[in-house]
Amino acid sequence: MVVLLAGCSSAEGSDVRPVPVQAPVAKQAGAPACTVTTKLIPSCGAWWGMAPEVFTGGSVEQALHGAESRMGAPVDVLHVYHRGSELFPTGAEVRLARDPARPRLLMVNWKPSLDRTWAEIAQGALDARIDRLAEHLRRTFPERFFLTLHHEPENDVDPSSGSGMGATDYAAMFRHVVLRLREKGVRNAVVVMTYMGAPNWAATSWFEDLYPGDDVVDWVAMDPYADDRVHDFDGLVNKTRKEYPGWPGFYRWMQARFPGKPVMVAEWGVFERPKDRAFKRRFFESVRGQIRRYPQIKALLYFDSPQAPRGDTSFDSDPGAGRAFSELARDRYFRSTPVPRP
């Protein structure tokens, strides 16, 4: 799914107060403490995150507090979207990250430009914009945060000669932006390469050329959604199609291609099935039952929206689904490692 801009990403203020949510599960006496690496990898379980109440028109604070109240649990990672010359994190995002009662990590999804080609960006067309962002980050937000650039690039690739939007152009753009930010003093960005996670794109001749290099990528991510072909979590993270017999599924591919990198499911969502109202409930139950089969997945970020481009992914559109999602959110697997305090 391609999201140009989440409606809750840039609002600054809100008079909504946080609601009480369940605290992280306490460790048993004598159990080893769970820790977080400099690349924000939790040593136990996985981060629980969300892009909350997207396209509802509320502020990011309203959206997050509303979603946390609805599921009765906090998020570890708040997924926000920015594009073009917007500076991030915003004041509201900083407040949520630094909440003394419940600190959160930020996953910032930035599309640097909607009118420049990847080749132009790689050649320096947006250097002034990148430098301005770097100065803002150095001045306002020294904490570590996740950063992904022009997520889900596959369906924006134009392989024709001279387009400036080829797969190698994307890799060059990604490298240039990351290295420019580092050159300008941004050392706290944990960089994520985010793929769509769809077999049809992975089967293209240029797919492997998208990857910008291990030196500029800390995590790899996918954005799979439960369409009509998907029945459970196993099928979500390892989508295959008979038309592409050589494709093993995204998680399997990531295990083989990036054995040393943590995997993030940066967006995932379950659409309504009018003829099967219990599907969402069963799907969320499958996540809880199957997530431990995928130890390389270290973050799971839901895309919660009543009007996502392909349908309603609200986790509580059905009472049974809401209960199953709340149980998933409170599962010990997602409550093992505390978010580091600023």
Automatic annotation (TrEMBL):
InterPro entries: GH, GH26_dom. It comes from the Bacteria. The keyword Transferase does not apply. Residues 31-325 form the GH26 domain. GO terms for molecular function: hydrolase activity, hydrolyzing O-glycosyl compounds. The active site is at 152 (proton donor), 267 (nucleophile). Keywords: Glycosidase, Hydrolase. Residues 306-342 are annotated as: Disordered. Gene3D superfamilies: Glycosidases (3.20.20.80). Belongs to the glycosyl hydrolase 26 family. This is GH26 domain-containing protein.
